[in-house]
Amino acid sequence: MRRSLPVMLASAVLCAGCTTGQVGRLPNTTTIPLSSTTLQLAVGTATLTQQNGQPYLGLNVVATFRQSNGEPATVANTPTLSGPADFSGGFGNVPKTNMYGLTPLQVMRAQQYINANPQFGPFAPVIDGSLFTSLVGVFGYGFAPANIVAEQPNFAVLPKIPTVNGCFGIVPVTDVPVDLSGFYAFNAVRYAALLLPLFGAIPPSGCSFAVPTLVPTHYYGGPPAWPSPQGFGQPVGFPGFPLGFTDFATPPVAGSYSLGVSIPANADATAYSTVSTSAALPSAVVAHPLPQIPQPTLRIQSDGSAFIDVTVPTGVSEAIALASTTRCDSAQVTNPAIPDQQYGVVVKGAGRYSLFLKNDLGPPDANGVRLHTFCTAADTQKYGTRSAEFSLTVVGFDYPAYEASYPLSTSAAPAISNGDGHHGTADLTAASPVVHQPYTLQ
Question: Is the pTM of this model over 0.85?
Answer without folding.
Answer: no
